[in-house]
Write a structure and sequence with these properties.
By secondary structure, the chain is an alpha/beta fold. Helix content is 52%, strand content 11%. Helix 8 links the parallel strand 7 and strand 8. Helix 1 crosses helix 11 and helix 15 packs across helix 17.
């Protein structure tokens, strides 16, 4: 499920944009698909902080919010493996933009990303309140100074009033000698401390290169803290690493494949097919029947077609004349040699005495009728 997170703080200059972009890079490094949307419509800086790839369209978030372009038109991929949606640099675009389409824009992004980060402006106005209303969670950003903390507390109160939720706090830069400890600041704001990003020259240096500190200086102190912040946010949002997602998908696919394999024999039986074990058992039974001395063979019927026909006719006559009784072993005398007259009379006598007619008796009677 996609989560929309606003990066907010009423005080200007505390590092909201740097945090938005660096957090986007850190989450992408964890395997999440991430979008960072610039909603500081009057003073946007994405184009100043990042080298963005050339887009098929020159559209920005100003055009998207003016409903003259789609959100896909404003997308730019950046180093670090995430996507940004910057605002334009001119005031005309700002004048034409409206935040009314914002909920629909975010719904479109939910279909494509795991996390959508909203970089918000400073102050308290409709441009800062609206993003808080549409966000699922809010990360507060402040410096550890009294004035910044007071303004951040106002932002927290505003978040609660619009019905959103504060996920945690990120402190940036250095405080004064009179600044309270970081944990005391988080306690005062009633939220979790995700991390304190120290004053680090790697941050402005990498911005001059057009990349985030997480991407361009991964061994720096600031990058390490932003990765910790990403881990804390991911835990809050119940996100798993991309590698874990891939492993879960592989396990699920393997389990599904095994279930399908187990179901095939049962499905075959239900459709009338014989299972392999039953086929083997049937084959063994046929082999044992063929080895039996009493069993008729196909070759005998092929060698004496006339006799086989006679036997079939005789069998039919017997079933009509007498009730079924267990049949003993068949006569072994060759059908190709005619019987003597004495043998014929003996056979007839045996039949008159009530003995069960045999296949040989039926054959003799048929031959007598043919000769008479």
């Amino acid at each position: 499920m996609t989560t929309v997170v606003a990066i907010a703080g009423a005080k200007g200059g505390v590092g909201k944009t740097t945090t938005s972009l660096s957090l986007g890079a850190a989450l992408a490094a964890r395997g999440q698909s991430v979008a960072v949307v610039e909603l500081d419509l009057a003073m946007g800086n994405f184009f100043d902080y990042l080298d963005v790839e050339e887009a098929p369209s020159e559209a920005t978030m100003h055009d998207v919010l003016a409903e003259s372009a789609t959100v896909d038109d404003a997308a730019r991929r950046v180093a670090g493996g995430f996507t940004v949606y910057p605002t334009g640099p001119d005031l005309d675009g700002f004048a034409n933009a409206s935040l009314e389409p914002l909920p629909g824009v975010l719904e479109a992004l939910r279909d494509s990303f795991d996390v959508v980060l909203l970089d918000t402006g400073a102050g308290l106005s409709n441009e800062t309140i609206r993003p808080l209303q549409v966000a699922d969670e809010v990360v507060l950003v402040a410096t550890p100074r009294v004035a910044a903390i007071r303004d951040t507390n106002k932002t927290k109160t505003l978040v609660e009033r619009v019905g959103s939720s504060v996920a945690g706090l990120v402190l940036t830069k250095a405080g004064t000698d009179n600044a309270p400890p970081n944990e005391r600041i988080a306690e005062f704001l009633g939220t979790d401390l995700f991390g304190h990003v120290p004053q680090d020259e790697a941050v402005p240096d990498t911005q001059a290169e057009g990349r985030t500190v997480v991407t361009a200086a991964p061994d720096s102190a600031a990058a390490a803290v932003y990765r910790d912040v990403a881990d804390a946010l991911a835990a809050r949002l119940d996100l798993t690493d991309g590698d874990e997602n891939e492993e879960d998908d592989r396990d699920e696919a393997a389990t599904t494949s095994q279930h399908e394999s187990d179901a095939e024999p049962q499905a075959a039986v239900e459709e009338g097919e014989t299972a392999p074990e039953e086929q083997a058992s049937s084959s063994d039974s046929q082999d044992r029947a063929a080895d039996s001395p009493d069993a008729p063979t196909a070759s005998a019927a092929e060698d004496h077609p006339a006799d086989a026909a006679a036997d079939e006719t005789s069998g039919a006559e017997q079933r009509q004349a007498t009730p079924a009784r267990p049949v003993g072993p068949q006569q072994t005398q060759s059908d190709s040699e005619p019987e003597s007259e004495d043998d014929q009379q003996a056979d007839e006598s045996d039949a008159d005495e009530g003995d069960e007619p045999t296949a040989s008796t039926g054959l003799i009677g048929r031959m007598k009728r043919m000769l008479s």
